[in-house]
Design brief:
The structure is a homodimer.
Chain A lengths: L6 E5 L5 H10 L5 E5 L11 H17 L4 E4 L2 H12 L6 E3 H12 L4 E5 L1 H6 L1 H9 L5 E5 L2 H8 L5 H11 L8 E5 L7 H8 L4 E3 L1 H15 L12 E5 L3 H12 L8 E3 L4
Helix pairs in contact in A: 1-10, 2-3, 4-6, 4-10, 8-9
């Protein structure tokens, strides 16, 4: 049996498209509905209550679209609202923290650094999960709010990007073996982060590991879309599609390969 | 007759507290209700339609609180939604663009620069208003989205702040006589902006001029709160009050002098 219902993915904005891309590359026959809550982005500066409220709202939209699984492709929402989203459905719900933690434990030797939004770091989710799976590992976390603004501005390799990375990350130098990029906006900044921390520090981007977990879970539950046909990818946003496409292109570094973006009213 | 109804002020977040402070200093007997829409901040990256929707929503809350005037203390909302807010009421509605334009024309010799959020610059409101009042003046505008993140992070005088200011403003050097700080988040960055542009460029912060206009308008309409009693200041936010107070303190550089902040549900 082939389960051709789409996978639902939501993010506070369009950063989660990096997760969409990884899932699509690994599981090309799966259809995907992506929701970017661009009218209320960012979540990383908001309170836990508000993050939960928006996340539940987004997940409800996806479930109404008939998705077979909900992927919370936003670290802030995964850190605060995963349980609340999971309570809405019997379908599997997967966040990006799990993938980041597993990838970090695979790659790390020594202490692990975690960077993310204010809300993600405040949640303490990464240190707790890392130590649940492997007690005793030292975890250093730091909120890096300006990285989001840099990535959205497309300033990933100029003087400003270097100064910001130095200001945030110099304290990690020499103390960590791996750094979890705990926000979907950070991967474009890998180069400048590496220039501060050095080549030997592994930079953990949870997108690929999350895609692997998604595939594994669907497989185990007998929910894969089988066959050679490529899945259909649709994207919805809560604010004007134009800017989403523009910022999305800047983040992904090339065309989105998504034909249309729909504006939906879920507020 | 003394009109003791409060003045209503709203902003996308807590940057508008600089406007509240200016109004309170000029008109200490006026009571003020301030609403910061911290659950949906920022507006500067959102579309015109969304900015109008949120602004109308905020103004309705203030009008329900019985305010005699609505001050839109957010440049982005003033640039896009002032007419829509004005249509909700027969009470006076005042934005911050007007004050910025008047102050710039008073102070400027030669061309005027305007910086603001993406949405404020995209609206073209400042150049249009400046040229309506004084045709022929050259206006150069530029969106400076990272300035908001810098001000919120409290990085107003470090290496990063200097690098960002240089990246954005170097092109203005030698071409303008005044620069309108077209976002309530920018005043804390005055020092670093001045270090790029030089001491001779006048930096225009619309808060004081807006307070003057508010006082004049109330006076002309016979709507002043008279007497020696100090007005009551109350503040409401749409997301958790804690962070608002913290960021507010960073922005105002000292205690807010506001006793309590209420969380309101207007979403």
């Amino acid at each position: 049996m082939s389960d051709i219902r789409p996978i639902g993915i939501f993010d506070s904005g369009i950063g989660g498209l990096t997760v969409l891309r990884a899932i699509h590359e690994l599981l090309p026959s799966e259809s995907i509905v992506y929701l970017g809550d661009t009218a209320r982005v960012p979540y990383g500066t908001k309170s836990r209550e508000t993050i939960i409220r928006y996340s539940v709202n987004n997940a409800r939209f996806l479930l109404n679209e008939g998705v077979k699984m909900v992927v919370v492709a936003c670290n802030t929402a995964s850190a605060h609202a995963l349980e609340d989203v999971a309570r809405l459905t019997t379908n599997p719900v997967i966040g990006v923290v799990e993938g980041g933690v597993i990838a970090a434990l695979k790659e790390a030797s020594g202490a692990i650094g975690v960077i993310g939004t204010e809300a993600t770091i405040r949640s303490n989710k990464y240190p707790l999960e890392i130590n649940r799976l492997q007690p005793g590992i030292k975890v250093f976390s730091k909120a890096c709010p300006l990285f989001v603004a840099l990535a959205e501005e497309g300033w990933t390799d100029n003087e400003v990007a270097h100064a910001v990375a130095k200001e945030y990350l110099e304290e990690f130098k020499g103390t960590i073996g791996a750094l979890v990029l705990g926000c979907t906006h950070y991967p474009p900044l890998k180069g400048v982060i590496r220039s501060v921390l050095g080549e030997h520090v592994r930079l953990i981007d949870s997108a690929e590991e999350t895609a692997r977990i998604v595939g594994e879970r669907l497989e185990n539950l007998g929910m894969r879309a089988l066959g050679a046909q490529r899945g259909k990818i649709t994207m919805a946003v809560t604010d004007s599609p134009e800017r989403s496409l523009e910022v999305g292109r800047r983040l992904l570094g090339r065309d989105l390969e998504i034909s249309g973006v729909t504006l939906v009213d879920i507020l």
